[in-house]
Amino acid sequence: MSAGVASAARPAGRAFSPRIERASLWLLGFGGGFAFIEPSPYEYAFVLCLFVLVVGGLKLHRSTLPMIVLGAIFNVGGLFSLAPFLHDADAVRFIAVSIYLLVTSVFFAAMILDRGAERFRALRAGLTLGASIAALAGIMGYFDVAGTGAIFTLNDRASGTFKDPNVLGTFVIFPIVLIAQDILHRRGRFLVNVALLALLMGGAVFLSFSRGAWGHAVGSVVMMTGLTFLLAATPRLRLRILGFVALAPLVAIAALGAALSVEEVRSMFEMRASLNQSYDVGPTGRFGSQVRSIPYLFEHPNGYGPRQFRYHWPEDPHNVYINAFASYGWIGGVSYIALILATIVVGFATVATRFSLQPLAIAVWSVLFVQILQGLTIDTDHWRHFWMLLGLIWGLYAYAKIERRRGGSRAAVPLTGSSRRAS
Question: Where exactly are the structural domains of the chain?
């Protein structure tokens, strides 16, 4: 990849057809919904996508260099911490996956620069279908439809096509926010969007019984709605948003009441909704272990080593920032925090910029920012969708700067198959 921006024209004999490019991106999005096997379909689709787009002239912009440099230093720290544990296949695999995920982030940052709306529509179509199947599997598994409970649940919680209910609940949030944004902007078919949002994906988030996913979903939708209202181009859009904001709590209360009318759902909800889980509190609980591990991390530049925290404390840190120091050492921990702080600056700067992909930037940043906060209670450094969102926001940051410098159109472009635009 080279600096600069990819032009719309492709060198003769080098590029694949736009249809093949869109198909590979669709497969990548679709593959993200299946993570119960390793390597997952996402990995195979990514290799295909990378080949197709690189041959077509995939390029980077200098605005994404801070992300790349800080991400690289983060992984260099991981390699230093790995040195004493080269005999540990799990630790080696952990750092290899970290390097791979950074590569995917760089890919998404570059992908969005050329024909960003068209490429994202293809990626989103696959992502939405993959998330819908994952959500449907989770719901079917929870209610043991056709004996699927043993396959699609874990500890009486919906996990769908993921190994962990927490990851299922978090994965479907980006499609939820995109669909909610479509409803606000009156894009696409209203009833289909509502069904996907409320019945499928919203149901999967709820039945995952992940407190983090619940908070993440609500926070992301609220943030997207608030940013859309503040940055709306017309009073008409603001009025429509106010109408939905007034209606949403009533719909949510009705849906929650219907769900809790089922005895097994109500029992699990009462247990999971408690903020005082036994494994969280006390000096030997999750949060107690996090606090007690900090003095050790200050004294050891290489931390515990990749995946070694669990051998010193009862379980993994469940805090991505502590894990950055524990698994990647001081170099990795400091660079990761610097990457997150830089991303926060870039994210808010991007959504505040008027450019053609501003609605997409709002959706991406609303989900990513809340996920950054969620990192305080769970290890997100190996979530594929986290690195996808990270790459997208840095790519959109570069896209906005390029478009404004060139004086291009700043009218919002449709991000679905519909040609209808926001009012």
Answer: 18-406
